[in-house]
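Recap for those who missed Tuesday's class. We walked through two folding examples back to back. For each one, the amino acid string is listed first and its predicted structure tokens come directly after. Nothing is annotated here on purpose, so try labeling regions yourself before you check the end of the notes.
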Amino acid sequence: MLTPAVNLCINSSTNLIQYIAEVQKFPMLSQEEEIRLAKSWNKCEDISSAHKLITSHLNLVVKIAMKFKNYGLLLMDLIMEGNMGLMHAVKKFNPDLGFRFSTYAVWWIEASIKDFILKSWSFVKIGTTQAQRRLFFSLRKIKKRILQYTNRETLNNEEIKAISNELSVSEVDVIQMNYRLAYKDQSLNNCIKIGNDFKKELQDMIPCNSVNQEATYQNREEKELKETILSNALANLNERSRNIFISRYLSENAQTLDELSKKYCVSRERIRQLAEQAMGKVKQYIQSESLKFSLRA
């Protein structure tokens, strides 16, 4: 297993200028030397060969990390992630293909840094598709290019459409990503000051429009009670009256008097009478049961 064999440790106390000065001391390698070291690592897993390949390209990581310094993250963190990508490149590099190691390593270094930026940028997952990842890392540059000769800081509709066409994403994606680049996430536990001394967490100031649990439980219980009472009321009707009541008043596609009169071979007037009688009995039962429950309460 290839481990970080670089003697120069990156941590929070490391001075960035000092680190850059140190990595610049490592000599560049010729292509022949790269091939020799890579084959020594691939065939014999010689740690010293891998170490030399890594240290000779630490300065390349710094240069690539510099391109992403405007994403609000510590440059030393970006360099550290880039170094992890560099080590993956050493493990995967095939010297027999004839490419320089730096050409191959650039992809791994950038991929590692970009993944770190996407994970660190927002609590909400972004860049879930290749197109969205390209939008995230290209929008800032394209926006700067478009607005550099204007006095505006925001994109108009035509510019949004042009960006969506250029990057093969929807206009909605461009608008949403532009907003997310402009405003980073805030923790709901952040405190805000109210008055002189009193502080509240941000989450305490956000109104909740959802029904509370007590009201939800009460509504569900009341609904179940009504359904039970109605079911019992219908059970007190004879089969014909119950079917007519359901067909007339409870079905989504209520049947007409004509339809029911043909179904039961009686007149329209008789159907109307039966329906009204059933309605009266159901109402009477519901009122009686409701009174019982109110007295119990």
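Example two. Treat it independently of the first, because the proteins are unrelated.
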Amino acid sequence: MKKIILLVLSFSIAFALTIPKNSKYDKRINHINFNSQNVTLIKSAVGYVTMLQFALDERSVNVVTGFSDGWEIVTRENYVFIKAKSYPVKQQEQELVDANGKKIKLSSFVHPSSEPQNWKTNLIITTNKRIYSFDLELVNEQEHFNYQVNFKYPLEEKERMDREKLQLEIAQAQAAAREQKQKEEEKLAKELERKTIPRNYDFMMHINENSESIAPNFAYDDGVFTYLGFDNTKAMPSVFLYDEANGEVIANTHIEKYAEYEVIVIHQIANQILLRSGNRLVGIKNNSYGVNPLDRTYTTKSKKVIRTLKNGN
């Protein structure tokens, strides 16, 4: 029973350490997937240096080992260099002098090759991004030891790729939505800009004295809007609708270009129209107003597009 328990304990201790995997090209070059919950075993040999390589954007902040006298730790950018070293031991005070009568100070060092088992310790490295935990062991150079250990970050790389994929999908969806919106706007503009078929040319015009310059070259309606065309010799007047109950009311209009004409489009079928510019005045009468109505009232030139009022305006 005791043997079984010892085997289980031994297996548990071995399993707790993560051992870097060998490169397929040289077993002294190793790689390992980072896991903050694992302790990584690093084996070094006397007279050799071991290098740890972290992420490109990573820098060491704190480096602490349990046996700083026996290990030299150097950091450079995203690299950490580890090397076993000799350490001095305190000598018993002795009164020794040289041939000239001067006192001699004796120093002695413990070399790592003499007691390699005593160099076993741990190493903690904190960087600007992560925390790393290591066990350091000193082994004979004939044994397998680490020249170089490269850390990889598959989980973070997957998260980065997932973020980039999501960002790409969002960008593509936004681009598709913009393209669809542009197509709809172009289709709407095409509908609204299309030339309508006149239904009524029966308009009569009265031009006041000196008002010829604001008189339209033609007038018609298409059953929805009223159109007044002006060539480039004419001035564009202000447009008013007139009826006996309300008097003059400014008309809702916009201007379109038809061939060589600038066309004032009045947003309704008008019965009586007044054109004004300073003292100039032109009156226009729709003689067929209400004679040939459409099957229903439309709010735009296109039967597919409906104009609605926004905020009551």
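Answers for example two:
The first strand starts at residue 17 and ends at 18.
Helices lie at 2-16, 154-193.
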